[in-house]
Design a protein that fits this description.
Number of strands: 6
Largest sheet: 4 strands, parallel
Shape: globular
Structural class: alpha/beta
Bound molecules: zinc ion
Helix content: 25-40%
Strand content: 5-15%
């Protein structure tokens, strides 16, 4: 996908002329990127050598990372793929988006996820992971929902919001076991979701333990979806 695909959709949005990360004045004609070229190059992207399940960068392990070897039985998904490693500038940018009201970043994140989608998951129905009610109240908007909407309108990605969140608690402060317990039973299928695809691609912001996407995958599979993948902005 060419970057200019997103241009008609950002015409009405005024981006600041200062870089989101370093604050320098910048000119990025033709891009939805809110970063100067130096800062964009510094974003820590996941390398080519990845775990075949969770997509973490591998150093010496053989195909599967140590974490996935221990937790394989709990993992309901085929594979996760992430754009960035959740550290440094990528972490800062995602924090600005989720917690500092830098809502305009959805355009850039949608662009990056769509590039990854077209290369690795073309044709799959994308399903955004639903936000908890508490986060919706605090943040005021569905941060993955609007990224998915943008991927659909500008990138022609098929998007279906099949899932909803019944739980009251966010996952942020919990460890793996806590996240599993907290998320269990809190994701449900929307009543109108009758035509489910054979393959689905979950969209989420950060893959930490995999408990959230794994629970979403379990719900989709119990309703008849055969294979579930996930595409996330970053992996912790
Ligand atoms: Zn910069
Ligand atoms: Zn792994």
């Amino acid at each position: 996908m060419e970057h200019k695909t997103f241009l008609p959709w950002i015409r009405g949005i005024v981006f600041p002329l200062v870089c989101r990360l370093c604050g320098c004045m910048m000119m990025r004609a033709g891009r939805a990127c809110p970063l100067c070229s130096d800062c964009e190059k510094e974003l820590p992207e996941v390398g080519d050598c990845r775990c075949r399940i969770c997509g973490r960068s591998l150093i010496s392990e053989d195909e599967t990372c140590m974490i996935c070897r221990k937790r394989a039985s709990l993992f309901n998904m085929e594979q996760n793929r992430s754009v960035f490693e959740y550290r440094d500038q990528a972490k800062e940018l995602i924090h600005q988006y989720k917690f500092s009201q830098a809502r305009g970043l959805y355009v850039y994140f949608a662009e990056r996820l769509t590039l990854e989608y077209n290369s690795f998951f073309p044709g799959l129905v994308a399903v955004p992971v639903p936000t908890s009610r508490k986060s919706l109240r605090t943040r005021g908007w569905d941060h993955m929902g609007i990224i998915a909407d943008m991927m659909h309108s500008a990138g022609k990605v098929p998007v279906e919001k099949f899932l909803e969140h019944h739980g009251r608690h966010a996952q942020k402060e919990l460890d793996y076991e806590g996240r599993l317990t907290n998320i269990k039973g809190s994701i449900g299928l929307k009543a109108a979701s009758c035509r489910l695809p054979e393959d689905a691609l979950l969209l989420d912001d950060v893959f930490t333990t995999g408990a959230t996407v794994s629970e979403c995958a379990a719900v989709l599979k119990s309703a008849g979806v055969k294979r579930v993948y996930s595409l996330t902005l970053a992996i912790d």
